[in-house]
Design a protein that fits this description.
By secondary structure, the chain is α+β, with helices and mostly antiparallel strands. It is built from 3 helices and 6 strands; from the N terminus they run ααβββαβββ. A 6-stranded mixed beta sheet has the order 1-2-3-6-5-4. A hairpin with a 6-residue loop joins strand 5 and strand 6.
């Protein structure tokens, strides 16, 4: 059994997003990282962190997970629409994790901006997940 739930959490997030037909019809894929020259729009499951969230009677972790939305359309409409789809698919959902139980998955924030080239819009959603190790 693995101590950290990070890999199983990331996989469960990917599986949940990839199983949604409307989301997958709207994007070219979900990557970590995206291949060079990938057509827009797409998602990446990016940075994250985990820290101890244990108590006397359980071993747990708190995770921060970033989902990135990439768009080439002018304005922020596409990024906001995709971010809303992602948030709806993940926030407060009960994902199944191997060796761990997901106690909560909460939306923390969303921001979007243009990348340095001024042509690609980049949105970031952050989620907080709390997990407990199971036997």
């Amino acid at each position: 059994m693995t101590l950290l739930a990070t890999q199983t959490l990331w996989q469960a997030i990917y599986d949940r997003l990839a199983a949604d037909v409307p989301l997958m019809a709207a994007i070219s894929g979900i990557y970590d990282p995206a291949p060079e020259g990938q057509s827009l729009p797409y998602l990446t499951i990016g940075e994250g962190m985990a820290r101890d969230w244990s108590a006397k009677d359980f071993s747990g972790q708190e995770h921060l997970v970033d989902i990135h939305v990439w768009s080439g359309k002018p304005g922020g409409g596409e990024v906001r629409t995709l971010a809303d789809q992602v948030a709806s698919l993940l926030a407060d959902q009960n994902l199944v994790l191997a060796g761990h139980q997901l106690v909560g998955l909460k939306f923390i924030f969303f921001e979007n901006f243009f990348e340095g080239d001024g042509e690609v819009r980049h949105g970031i959603l952050r989620f907080r997940a709390r997990t407990i190790q199971t036997l």
